[in-house]
Structure formats: C-alpha cells, structure tokens
Amino acid sequence: MTTNPACPRCGRTPMAALDVRYTRNRWGGAGPAPRPEQWWECSGCGWVGYRDPQTGPLTSMRRPEGEEADCFFCGEEGGNVVSEPWREENGELREWLVCLACGTSNQRRVRRPAGG
Questions:
Q1: Which of 1, 68, 98, 108 is the most buried (most CB within 10 A)?
Q2: Among the listed residues 114, 116, 107, 20, the one whose alpha carbon sits nearest the alpha carbon of residue 66
Q3: To which H or E segment does residue 22 belong?
Q4: Structure letter (DSSP) for residue 69
Q5: CB 79 within 8 A of CB 101
Q6: What are the residues facing 21 on neighbouring strands?
Q7: Do residues 103 and 21 lie in contact, with contact meaning Cβ atoms separated by under 8 Å?
C-alpha cells in the first residue's frame, strides 16, 4: 500500500490519489485497467502529477488551457494533462499528453506559438 505523498509545490499532505484507468480500446470487451503510474492531485494548490512505482520520484504535469485541455479521444472537457517538454536526439521537441478520464496517452511534437 502506497502512502499519499505531500505536495511538492505547497507541502500540503496528503494529496488525493487519482484513479486513472485505461477505458478505451480494451480488447475483447475487457473492463477498465489501471495505468502503470500512480497519479496524484493537490486540493490546495492544484498540482497534478504522477510517480512511476519503479523509479519513485514525483513528476509534475500541467493542465493545458482551451481546446488542448479537452481529450480528443474520449471528449472529456479538461481531462488532459501534459508533461514538461524534452528534446529528442534529432532536435525535435516533444511532450507527453495523458487524459485522466480515459487513460489514453500520446507523445506529441510541441507546437511553436503562433508568430514564433
């Protein structure tokens, strides 16, 4: 059993565990299955993130705004969270998007701001 960690941003403890499950495209009609990460949200400051049970540290995600916040797989409004971007060996900037409602995730290229 995992204990709920303190929020890395505001120190509030304990944070709420989020039950993030794969609900889409389940072969043979299988029911929802938990994602491999442990997901957390702070009710005090709104921090959201996850911990890989094998590696341990908490990793921050951000809630995107506008249309980007809505899951294009299940339609959940405000369901998406996005990682910090990283640079691939080929120079491409990427980020990881996860829907907390349906559990679907996808790596994507970071779009440049309009006019930039």
A1: 98
A2: 114
A3: strand 21-22
A4: G
A5: yes
A6: 34
A7: yes
Sheet holding 38-41, edge to edge: 16-18, 38-41, 48-51, 58-61
Q: How many Å apart are CA 97 and CA 116, to the nearest integer?
A: 22
Residue type, 35: R
- Res 58: pLDDT: 93
End-to-end CA distance of the chain: give it in Å, rounded. 47
- Residue among 75, 90, 78, 91 at smallest CA distance from 48: 78
Three-state DSSP class for 29?
helix
Tokens of 41: 């949200």
User: What residue type is assigned to position 98 of the chain?
Assistant: V
Amino acid of residue 89: E
